[in-house]
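Sequence and structure are no longer studied apart. As an example, we show below a sequence and the tokens encoding its fold:
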Amino acid sequence: MSRTALLLLADGRFPAGGYAHSGGVEAAVAHGAVHDPDSLEVFCRGRLHTTGLTAAGLAAAAAAGHDPLLLDDAADARTSAPALRTVARRLGRQMMRAARATFPSAELERLSSARPQGAHQPIVLGLATRAAGLTPVDSACAAAYESIGGPATAAVRLLSLDPLHVSGLLARLGREADGVAEAAADAAARAMTEGVDVLPSASSPLLDITAEQHAAWTVRLFAS
């Protein structure tokens, strides 16, 4: 097992397309909900404990060896906004391209063949971490970090925030992200015997609504 593989997968420079997405923060900035480091921290914390937890559970279950097609269906059921389902599959398709080149595996090939239009990104992330020899909690950690790292980085560009302050924000959320990852991995372990219904299904209705609004914008900096 290489911890370097985890750093690579969690790195915003990994060519999986995440840099083009704001995780909902562009719409939040437009509505005035995020306007400074403090409001960004509130936004990131809320995202971490809702959509971040859900994504981490799906990623951990894929890394644990759960049927990825069942997990992909479960991800659809947990993503009520059509715009977010489209984004999740687009990101999954981009993650699949990068993962197949970086961590080739038969499981990634099978999922790519079964979902040519893209599986949900957390499922692909989970299989990529599995192919890299990482653990379910590692996969959950990568997903949890992504749920806050993406919006935080986007907010720096949108609001010209001091990157040092934003790095401090992410550091403060680190312990909570670890807790989310551990809870997600525990649920993934139970899902192996109890089924996907025990995986987290936390949601954020406001993110769903603003995602649909954002998708209709004619001018925007980020794809989502």
The mean pLDDT is 94. The longest helix spans residues 37-64. The CA atoms of residues 188 and 194 lie 10 Å apart. The two ends are 33 Å apart (CA to CA).
